[in-house]
Amino acid sequence: MDTGIDDALAIILALNSPELKVLGITTVAGNAPVKLCSTNTLRILEHLNTNDIPVIEGMEKPLKQPFSGALGYHGPDGLGEINLPPPKLHTKSTLAWEFIAESVSRNPGEITLIATGPLTNIAVAFQHVPGLASSLSRIVLMGGAYGLTQYGKGNRTPFAEFNIWQDPEAAKIVFDSKAVISAIGLDVSMNPSACLTKYHLKQIQKCNNPHARLSAELIKYIINRHTYFELHDPLALTAALDIPLFGFISAPIEIITGDGWDRGITRILPKEEISHHSAYIANTVNGERFLELFLSRLCDD
Ligand code: BDR
Ligand code: CA
Known about the structure:
Strand order of the largest sheet: 3-4-5-8-6-7
Bound molecules: beta-D-ribofuranose, calcium ion
CATH topology: Inosine-uridine Nucleoside N-ribohydrolase, Chain A
Radius of gyration: 18 Å
Number of helices: 12
Number of domains: 1
Distance between the termini: 26 Å
Order of helices and strands: HEHEHHEHEHHEHHHHEEEH
Strand content: 5-15%
CATH architecture: Alpha-Beta Complex
Helix content: 25-40%
């Protein structure tokens, strides 16, 4: 993950989801420079007294493109200026791609990678260890804009979603691999029924536990600046819980690489395009049920 505000909420949701056992978090340059993403991950975990999840710092820039962050949205500290103290916890000294490769190789068919940032670490792991993709259970990722709904347009450019745009070369490696991929793109994450409003913030502010209090601070920063808050990363994480909230289509996907106007486009190809591996792409979401789940998991002690 590239821990900005919605990534942080995905961590909090994961910690409150009994379906998941979080084996580790690798950070990657995306919303913020990778060092700040690592610091933010540690700050969130430490604040919530979670000291047993290893955090491993990953790639500091995309495979070929220069790094370009999104602190304008997430705030100068990447976490909506919530003023958490510097962490006492440290990142592990191993490399992110090695951590991914070792975890997967030790548990063939068992591991789900949940990617809420650019796909650089995963691509590097796949480059180093041929066949690794087939040893995964699956990848659930936040990324792409597939034109499947009126919301499936770009957010970084008019055509491309931020995570894929940031490192399209990595995204191509991942989408062209043999991994089973479930992609949650803007088509569903920008659906207003799955977004938070002032009304939801008020509900969370009434919940008296550290997870809800931290979430409310993070959410407040965005709600004060925008009318609603798109929960891209928590929504993607929810797709790993196997709760029937989404509809998916299966289609071969082409990722447009390079640095032209079309960088980072995620294009659905005709089914016959067997040169490309198919991925599951979300085309519907039950936003109301998702928000109910999100709020209840934050609020239940
Ligand atoms: C994605 O981009 C980032 O800014 C968010 O954290 C999310 O992962 C949405 O396009
Ligand atoms: Ca993210």
